[in-house]
Amino acid sequence: MSVRGRAVLSGLAVAVLFALPLVPEILGARRLVFRDAQITHWPWRRVAVAELSAGRVPFVNASASGGEPFLANPNAVLLYPTMLLEKVLPPASAFNLHYLLHVLWAFLGARLLARRLGIAPGAAFFSGVAFAFSGIVMSYASAFANSGAAASWLPWCASAVLGVVRARGASEILRAGAAAAIAFGLQLLAGEPALSALTLLFAAFLAAAEIAASREDRGAAARGLAAGGILAGIGAAAIASPLLLPLSAVFPLTYRGQHLYSERAFGASPFLPWRAVEWLFPRFDGDPGALFSGAHWQYALHKGDLIYIWCVTLGVLPIAAVAIACLKRDFWSPRTAWLSAGTVVTFLFALGPAFPLFRILGSASLLRRLRYPIKFYLLTTLCVSLLAGFAAERLRPTPARAGRRAMAVVLALVVVFVSALVAAGPGGFLDRTVLPYLAGIAAPAEELLPAIRRNLAGDALFGLLATAVLALVLFSRRPIRGQNHLLALAALLLAFPWALPLFVSADERDLARPPAVSAAIREGGGIYVSPQLPEFNVLASGTRHPELPPRVVKLARVQIEELVPATGAPFGVRYVFDADPDGSYGWYNRLAEEALAASAPQEQSRLLRLYGARWLVHDQGEGRPDFEPVTGFAVAGRRLVLSQARAPLPQIRWAGRAWRRGSLSGALELVRSDRFDPESDVVLPGAADSAAPREAGRARVEVERAGPAEAAATVEAEQPGNLIFSRTYFKSWKAKVDGRDAPLLVANARDLAVAVPAGRHRVEFSYDRAPFLRGVVLQALTFLAVVGLALVRPGRL
Prior knowledge:
The chain contains 29 helices and 20 strands.
């Protein structure tokens, strides 16, 4: 069989083996619900598809926090090619395949990169499996629509840059630059800026290593890289311009655009040294599908840091291969030395604040808007995967000394895994070590310990199996034909016990049922779900759902029944405020939400009503003044109440009295006080504080339309005043009065307001579409240019 045939067959084997256990997810019978997949990505995608089905471009997500930019939000992943799957597949199938296909894309990209680095086909296959089925890639691909896609493009981008470095002549440089532009452009559209920045660093690192190792004219290679790199950068920006241009228009008024994270927040979720245990025991962190027994139990070890990446394993076989090969002299070359250096440096930065030089990154204000140093670990993983490919080519020891060294590594692994089996016995070393860390957890230790023992013992058995495969390859009397493919397939199959459980899914029919309480809120209006309701850390804090089985799949339905943001969005629920852990939403909205959290109950009622809340979901006994109970309901044994505002405000209304405040804090302080009447007043920015007139001018407002990204109304006003539209303020919003552009102001520290003279006038609000349209034109022209380059024969330029 030819090399190409073996490559196709081995790739098909990976696809089939990965797909078989996930057939229900591929067919859409079950839907992925782990972490952000359930809370953010699925609800947003459904809202976007509904907008598209109605013939509207989803510029604004009216279901999120008073209306947030949608296409301009990278986390929404609305401009990425997999959105096209929605046109031909059932919704759950299209959604799941976005995640699953990128695992295979990561495999293919890493294999290609390994081949371009000179690794033989079988060993490159091993590298591809090691990267795609590593802990960090699996963690991304099972929960984060943007991070999983961006991570899968990392090796493709690096491979494209190597093509630029090796190109000679204008024609080759143009073609290579175009290929790099496509790879980086699609990664940017995936919507994870931090990973795109790290990809650029890694690609530059590989390019520098390639030039340094080149025996040809290094100056010519550097000049070719500069030319191709500039072309690739311009092309990538143009391909991603439908996202980048709208994003640049709103970014200054997003929370990340205005706020610099503290040193602690900037260094959140680092690689903690104790997690190196997961390299050999990947299930040490527990069962991702569990809320209770077997879930993450090491809260004391994390010391308050976010558990962002569930598993950090590199795979037993890749680690063992590198450990054995690095003891041999013929393993070391300029490329392996550079990759080893990259492994060490990126791993040190993954440690976050524990690494002193990490503060260099924290000194850059642009980088302080990013978080999660463990993203550096993705680069570490790719470096180790490539080193594993180089190692696989040199695994079979020939000299006696090399054989003894390999035997020592194999025996060391056997000792470690056998010791783990012994330690995992009841009352053994594991119990004595782990028990102190379970003291502060709500779940009883006697229920947690058996699950922890099982995980460790199971990983030890799988580790022994991996060691046996390695020993077979190393010490067989005759060379095993296709030994590197054997290693790769063994690594793949041994990853399944810990990797497949990350793809937590629930029955799609169950998830698609509207929540019972939605029947009571058919009249529309914004909803506020008490922040006391979301329940994620059940293991550490205990549950307030006595009937909740300890599984994530059951929690997924509970979240929908409780309308936990943003799970109600597919059912037409609009949230006044919803969870914002990443700072992706509007700055004005975030400050208003922080003021709400810091307010007394009566002040909270005023703010909620002002910002359009008609409904409130809360625990019994947690109601707010000016909201009256409508119905009580129970979810998994927890008693909740749906309350309604006694006098809800329309999203388009007239304000005849205007206050002025010189600061946002002053505006928020005013609107939550009893001096401010939301039915007739508005507070606007001013150079100095000023009080409103005593009498409010009245007006009659006829609303023509009020959509997510536009509104229109006719106003008949006795005196000048302001028309308010309850949408979070961004400069992309525009206003017209009688067809003429009118200044748009921040109303009540969050919403939109336009001044209207006395008399009869027509007022329009609209979200600026121009940046997106310019981006679409740029993208189309770039793709046409790329097609033209592909049709030109080499040497014609």
